[in-house]
Amino acid sequence: MSALDRVVKPKTKRSKRFLEHREPKLNENDKNAMLIKGGNASNTVTQALKDLYALKKPLSVLYKKKNMTRPFEDQTSLEFFSKKTDCSLFVFGSHNKKRPNNLIFGRLYDYHVLDMVELGMEKYVSLKEFKNCKCAEGTKPLLIFAGDAFEVNEDYRRLKSLLLDFFRGPSVSGIRLAGLEHVLHFTAVDGKIFMRSYKVLLKKSGCRTPRIELEEMGPSFDFVMRRTHLASDDLYKLAMKRPKALQAKKKKNISHDTFGTKYGRIHMQKQDLGKLQTRKVKALKKRPAEKIASAKQEGNASAKRRKRD
Q1: For a disulfide at 198, which of 28, 33, 214, 225, Cβ 3.0-4.6 Å?
Q2: What's the pTM value of the predicted model, to 2 decimals?
Q3: How far apart are CA 259 and CA 296, in angstroms?
Q4: Percent of the chain surpassing pLDDT 70
């Protein structure tokens, strides 16, 4: 049994809070990411990891020392770092003659590697090279995916899910218009993936709704997909399973149309409006003459029924 697998009983309140923070929950904590530099890493890869770390802050951990590991051959070191830092996402950067300027995006389930996608950087423009204002740290980005490959190709579909997990940021219940200031755009075309980062500018438009402009603020990547390590369908389905307590209960006799309008169906028995109890008001009371006329009508109706019988 390793040091990380043994059961540790908390001795202080601080350690108790730490262990409770890592316990399974119905609503899980926001996903942290670790950025790891391989044994051979170029200046381009190092700077790219720093830029991704800046985009992911504060939910990220950057390892500055080199780590002699190969994720596609041995995953034990990644799983060790994941359990140590409580990170379920990672980016591993490396560089060699066969695969220059290499980034491996991956995620873990139960501290075991679930998916890995290897992307090669063909073109890269760092955050520093864009001389303009940047977004504040911890800004939740808008994610846009363009290209049929993200819906048709299974590798690209998993990559889209992985990028959504990595860049989505903290879960929030609401957001104001001024908070929508960062856009990440991913385009898949001709076997390449283009990643662009924009800052949203709200300009005066002469009316209440501002005019929107996008200004590229970096970093900018041109990726090409190299290798993939995808989980089996059964394991992927298990990782995506939601607890029953969080599943929305189906409500009977309620439906929605294509525009989101809510419709309800009511089941009622046939009503006899003659026996309907109304408010007793003097104006609605029958006069003596009306009572006599209604009594005669009822008597004539009963007499006709007797003759028929």
Answers
A1: 214
A2: 0.73
A3: 57
A4: 94
